[in-house]
Amino acid sequence: MIVALDNTFLTLILNPHSKPRPDPATNQPVSYCRERIDAMIDRHSNSGDTIILPTPCLAELLTAVPSVAAAVSEINNSSYFEIASFDAKSAIELAIETQNAISLGDKKSGIQASWNEVKFDRQIAIVAKVNSAEIFYTDDTNQASFANKLGISVKHTWELDLPPQYAQRSFLDGDEK
Question: Which of 19, 63, 138, 176, CA to CA, is 20 to 30 A from 10?
């Protein structure tokens, strides 16, 4: 299986001080977010899945990490991450999707953001599609919307499974992060 990560997931993986977006249902931080993401990465890597990192996300990520060199080294040394470029095939797919949106009378596809943000978010979702991602991990509502329109399943941090050892600990101890 091929899955794709957006900048929010990449940042949570590579920047230990980053904070997750709140769960929209509770408006509270996702409990055990780091453990949920680590379990998701472990599950995909143990299954031999490919985890793609769209290059537009990589550019965003590298502005938010304490050390660009350390982040690039960790990605390059990982057996489960694969950098996916915004290439000619992606550009063609993006043009087709944008033309479709324009022909429907709404080039932003109902997204309330600047045109530059819409174009950037579409690039990320298109890279996931062109690289055959089945799941797109994102907490960005615009990217989630585009990925869904492209037929890609979307998962958010607050939807990730809680590893059993933490579910039991929070129940028994009341210890929640």
Answer: 176
Per-residue pLDDT tens digits for 47-84:
999 999 999 999 988 887 888 898 899 899 988 899 99
User: Do 131 and 57 form a contact (C-beta atoms < 8 A)?
Assistant: no
Task: List Cβ neighbours of 92 (8 Å cut-off, separation of 6 or more).
Answer: none
The residue type at 13: I
Strand partners, 28: 23
- What's the burial of 3, exposed, middle or buried (CB within 10 Å: 0-12/13-18/19+)? buried
Interval 85-108: pLDDT, tens: 999 999 999 999 999 999 999 999
Distances (CA, A) of 157 to 93, 108, 147: 28, 25, 16
H helix intervals, 25-140: 33-46, 55-62, 68-77, 88-103, 115-130
pTM tops 0.90, yes or no = no
State how far the Cα of 49 lies from the Cα of 51, in Å rounded to an integer: 6
In the block, which residue shows the tokens 């929640």?
176
Token pair of 29, please?
Answer: 């931080």
CB under 8 Å to 135, separation ≥6 — which residues? 1, 3, 4, 152, 153, 154, 155
Cα dist from 90 to 37, 75, 163, whole Å:
27, 22, 35
